[in-house]
Amino acid sequence: MNHDPLTMSQNGKLIIFSAPSGAGKTTIVHHLLGKIPALEFSISATTRERRGDEVHEKDYYFISKEEFLHRIAKKQFVEFEEVYTGTFYGTLRTEIERIWAKGKTVIFDIDVEGGLHLKRKYGAQALAIFVQPPSLEVLIERLTGRGTDSEEKLKERFAKAEKELEYAPQFDIILKNYDLETACREAEELVSAFIGPPAP
What we know:
Elements lengths: L4 H4 L5 E5 L6 H11 L3 E3 L3 E2 L14 E2 L2 H9 L3 E8 L2 E6 H9 L3 E6 L1 H11 L3 E7 L3 H11 L4 H15 L7 E4 L3 H16 L5
Parallel strand pairs: 1-7, 1-8, 2-7, 3-4, 8-9
Antiparallel strand pairs: 3-6, 5-6
Helix pairs in contact: 2-8, 6-7
């Protein structure tokens, strides 16, 4: 019988934060990383170009499309998807193993479909939280205000966000990010309760 080494780990826990782009999940995840020492960020692999001052092996594992497809063939990802045409994102199996080996809880800032895939895979070991923006209009304002995307890219993001909002009920918890400070505090409470007290 072929056991998956990851599902054999009894203590490993995962915290999954998913949301449409612009909903504030990255800000909440950074807040939690600063507050809860037991958490460690899962670095995703991607084929997209670096933005601004992003750092390889800190923000993402930036790899070529060829290498990404090669790793898919070798079943090195626990989840992956083509988020936008020609642009892949995924979670390497070794990344989860690396964090669990340190006795920490893995925290994800991940695409909605990727988040649901992880939740299905890990079941009770994972807490899946959907960050909900006040409205689609607010989301569109935030994405437009970033000034980092072309008009065409923005349209693609808007269409994707609209679709992703429909997935919210499939998550364990819907965290409303109407006020960032409140959302961060609620996220802290939810995550702390799921992880449990730190080991003595």
